[in-house]
Amino acid sequence: METIKYAPNRMKTRAYTKETELFSEREVAKVYRFHQTMGAAYNPTPLVRLGHYAGFLGLGGFYVKDESKRGNLKAFKLLGGAYAVANCLCRLLGKDIADVTFDYLKSDEVKKRLGRLTFAAASDGNHGKSVAWAAHEFGHNAVVYMPKGTVRDRIDAIESLGGTVVVSSGNYDWCVREVNRLADEKGWNAVPDTAGEGDAQVAVWVMQGYATMAHEAIMQLGDTVPSHVFLQAGVGSMAAAVTAVFANHYKEKCPKIYILEPHQAACYYDSGVKNDGSACSVDGDMDSIMAGLSCGVPNPISWEIIRHFADGFFSCDDVLSADGMRILGNPLGNDERIVSGESGAIGTGLTDELMKRQPELAKQIGLGESSDVLVFSTEGDTDTKNYRDIVWYGKYARL
């Protein structure tokens, strides 16, 4: 199998649509304000400049947003789950989230008005953990459906937060459909991270929660404007949120943005190849080590943003994720060590592949010695055994 497959985005228009407007600077400021009311539960994650690694690759700069240090959940998803569950509570209370704080939603007054609710989600791991965390913080229940093959670490992480986990016999997309069916039947509050099923407004809130991560990166970059941003996609909610925040902030100076997926779940790449403006879906087990990206149905809101603003799509072999994990865990010189999980390291692995093994493709997308590359390491070692097997013992090594 090819290590990478690339499709340029011939649908790019840079058109600002109603979907892009969901991430206007006004909306982002509202999201960021709420996250700041979380007190010690919210922390900006580091933006790490790997100067020695950039020099090794022949780049001007290489920046990693390290989401392994997001609260105690080791993943960016904390932002979306907290913001969406909070908005669900505000809707039931008849309030605007701009007018409340995290502590108010935890108050006895709110609990007395609403009683004990159940929030439900489908997840490969990190989204479910964030919904369970938020439900627990606000004094409610959580039920999370997970696809077959989910590792014990990810199940334990949700159960440790008081969530009930159901490991299904289906894939992630089946879990999404099942959670929405059961929510209607049982009166649960479904918190999907895709607008393809269930309440699209809740999925929007999840996406908007991720805007804080992009906002932090912009503040941390200061006067540096990246030339290239690599964003991994499952359903595409995070990738679209960051794309829209950057497009609204940088405008005509917006960096080149590329969407990355595993070969087994390359629905955005397939949509780019199809090139008719519609989104493709894939089905099956989607058995990739990048479990958080193993989603076969694009979020329709995400697709509308990505097709207008992304510069291209990469479908990637699992070996690139494993390479990225080893590279970030074993830095050059005095570069900072980053613990990056399977779904988090793909941007680093792809950049390494392009610069060291596929220079013609790197040149095609404009990567070179004056390029400043930004990647998002979206999770830490959320599967601790697999992390050790890959970083210590060379699992998924190149043959």
Topology:
Elements: E1 4-8, H1 18-21, H2 25-36, E2 47-49, H3 51-57, E3 61-66, H4 77-93, H5 102-105, H6 108-114, E4 118-122, H7 126-137, E5 141-146, H8 152-159, E6 164-167, H9 172-186, E7 189-190, H10 200-209, H11 211-221, E8 228-232, H12 237-250, E9 256-262, H13 267-274, H14 300-309, E10 312-316, H15 318-329, H16 346-357, H17 359-364, E11 372-377, H18 384-391
Helix pairs in contact: 4-7, 4-10, 7-8, 11-12, 12-14, 15-16
N-to-C order of helices and strands: EHHEHEHHHEHEHEHEHHEHEHHEHHHEH
Radius of gyration: 20 Å
- Share of helix, binned: 40-55%
**Biggest beta sheet summary:** 7 strands, mixed
Overall tally of domains = 2
Structural category is alpha/beta
Return the CATH class of the largest domain.
Alpha Beta
The largest sheet has its strands arranged as: 1-10-9-8-11-3-2
Strand content: 5-15%
The CATH architecture of the largest domain would be 3-Layer(aba) Sandwich
C-alpha geometry: globular
Mean pLDDT: 96
Question: Based on DSSP secondary structure assignment, what is the total number of beta strands?
Answer: 11
Rounded to the nearest angstrom, the distance between the terminal CA atoms is: 12 Å
Q: Quickly count the helices.
A: 18
